[in-house]
Amino acid sequence: MKTYAITGCATGIGAELKKIIESQGNRTISVDLKDADITADLSTQEGREKAISGICNAAPEGLDGVITVAGLGPTVEDWPLIVSVNYFGSRAIIESLKDLLVKKKGTGVIVSSNSAALPNANEDLVKVMLEENDEEKSREMIKSLSGYDAYAGSKLALTRWMRRIAPVWAGEGVRLNAVAPGATMTPLLQQGLDHPEYGDAIRGFTVPTGDFGTPEQIANVIVFLLSEQASFCCGSVFFVDGGTDALFRPDQF
Ligand code: NAD
Description:
Helices cover 47% and strands 13% of the residues. The protein is an alpha/beta fold. A seven-stranded parallel sheet has the order 3-2-1-4-5-6-7, sandwiched between helices. The structure holds nicotinamide-adenine-dinucleotide (NAD). Nicotinamide-adenine-dinucleotide (NAD) is lined by residues 8, 10-14, 32-33, 41-43, 69-72, 85, 111, 113, 181, 183-184, 186-189.
């Protein structure tokens, strides 16, 4: 039986991932604002510490995997909160659980977004997150930008962070990868669809394969990345978006 720590599994992609992992006879340690083994708010330092110490107590023998799914969408009105959860919360969890991953030569998967690869990211904000690792400054900066900048910027910074450390951690037996979903039918997407200003634009998203994705379609790719079958995957970003990224950026990969 393997042990996986998962953030953000009360609903959506994380809930589906938890269900699949447990159905395969493995154990999960879940972290979320509600309906989780460890109830913690990953937007705060105290919440992150509670999550990390809870996971360390629950799995002192080590972890086979850590998956940071918890995240907020671009239509959340508290833009600093998006930055805190999506970047600083995810980074703190993976970084702090490294020793537990090393113990079992485990695997980390971050949940990014296909919007992280779009060309209009706010690079100044990304730099403050990635290079300076300054949460207060990032939270202050985003106030004069937008929810989209917070969302795409935090996912871009997190993905670059993962790619920078993946080759280093690989030397200690830990593989890190990212999944970059496109529009997937979850409460997060529903919040966007219900938004009076952005709802129509989201309904108009082009998905070459047809419909929006399902949480299961994303979770299945995460399960693959956690498995032995993916033992040569390291530092990769897997777009699971029905072809949207290929449509918009055919020449970049
Ligand atoms: P969701 O809203 O169903 O799930 C997000 C989960 O994160 C929830 O369980 C929520 O309670 C938890 N969470 C939010 N804030 C938290 C906090 N402060 N502390 C702890 N947990 C917190 O949405 P989802 O679509 O399943 O999102 C999962 C991930 O997928 C997110 O990182 C999101 O950015 C990413 N993503 C989603 C889509 C999409 O279209 N659904 C597209 C690209 C990327």
